[in-house]
Amino acid sequence: MLPIVAVIGRPNVGKSALVNRLSGEQDAIVFDEPGITRDRTYRPAFWQDREFQIVDTGGLVFDDDTEFLPYIREQAQAALSEAIAAIFVVDGKLGLTAGDEEIASWLRTQNVPTVLVVNKCESENQGLAQAAEFWNLGLGEPFPISAIHGNGTGEMLEELIKHIPPVDEIEQEEEIRVAIIGRPNVGKSSLLNALTGESRAIVSPVSGTTRDAIDMVVRRGETTYRLIDTAGVRRKKNVDYGAEFFGINRAFKAIKRADVVLFVIDILDGVTEQDLKLAGRIIEEGRAAVIVANKWDAVEKDSHTIYEYQKMLDDRLFFMDWAERIFVSAMTGKRVDNILDLVDRAAEGHRKRVSTSVINEVIEEAVKWHSPPTSRQGKQGRIYYGTQVTVKPPSIALFVNDPKRLDDGYRRYMEKQFRQQLGFKGTPLRLFWRGKRLREGENMGVNRATKV
């Protein structure tokens, strides 16, 4: 795995802004309100021949145990324990505070190399003067920077990479990206903690506890997974502009960058209208998925219970029948160990590529059993051949005489044949129906696409 650099500091000193600057992306939520960042969030970064993960943490306050502050301290400590170096961010406009001195004293006991960064020094001329008083912290040279504008970050990074090995000395592996998606309070963070075996994310009955997308890399056997916990997605009309708004946008971005989505449903609530909208979003983005029915421990059971709940999922999520289902309890750990087996199958189906000859064998056999429909005018639809055009999700182009002659029933029949014969488990399958003659200016593409 890449070396980890933890970003530490009081609330509202600009830690998330610095993470965005170093990662080159606007993925960390930046908002003028204390406590926006709570869990530790990971972003890739590099400088010269060094690559590393930059870890954003919540604002540290040692003398206050209200709300989430004790949990934030635990997350910051966990980030520092796995870090190869730390960046301690202070506020150059506000100046040296008692809180900074307390954090500096704590850092000196951690045995982690620390780079002291004085943020909000927008003026290069005044930056050195603003940084001067921070020599008193005893952590070496304070580097004046502006996380917003980028001033001084080069000099800071030159100091940081002294503690990071070059890329050629780091063993890197391909990973499966897994986004954990669902409504608020369905157990996404509990599931992340159960999968990783540690308190990676803050778990609370308070809705909206998770605000940012939280990355965690775990390894099982020869496979590496990047698990991404996300903020709960509520109905759009109930979301005000602010931290929750940005958190939901990060959740949608997590779906887009994932290979597989763990779609978490509170089995006690059943499949809600908001769940249906999230399912549609997953299909629209073409992501593989596993439906995780959580809180199974809280269901009163008899010999028929499992079948009743399976039927409920089948009825409500009939358009997502390709996704495997699993009933779990993140709280007790029941069946959690089986989730990654389903992730493996879904990821395999998502990236599966089938040769043109095999696809055409499936088409030939399917047409023998069920011929394309014939119109009232006696004109029959014909499928000439097919070929897979892309993966993630697997997409197959079918060349036909006229797409209009193939009704929805026959299209569904062909989709079912491809799934049964080629084994596309856990992934949407897209079929593009191309006519014999394309109209002038029409995208080479697609006369009509079917998403399954």
TrEMBL record:
Q: Does the keyword rRNA-binding apply?
A: no
- Any single GO BP term: ribosome biogenesis
Q: Where are the transmembrane segments?
A: none
Domain EngA-type G per the UniProt entry, residue ranges: 3-168, 176-351
One of the record's GO molecular function terms: ribosome binding
Keywords for the protein's UniProt record, in alphabetical order: GTP-binding, Nucleotide-binding, Repeat, Ribosome biogenesis
Query: Function of this protein?
Result: GTPase that plays an essential role in the late steps of ribosome biogenesis.
Family assignment?
Belongs to the TRAFAC class TrmE-Era-EngA-EngB-Septin-like GTPase superfamily. EngA (Der) GTPase family.
Quaternary structure and interacting proteins, as annotated: Associates with the 50S ribosomal subunit.
Q: What is this protein called?
A: GTPase Der
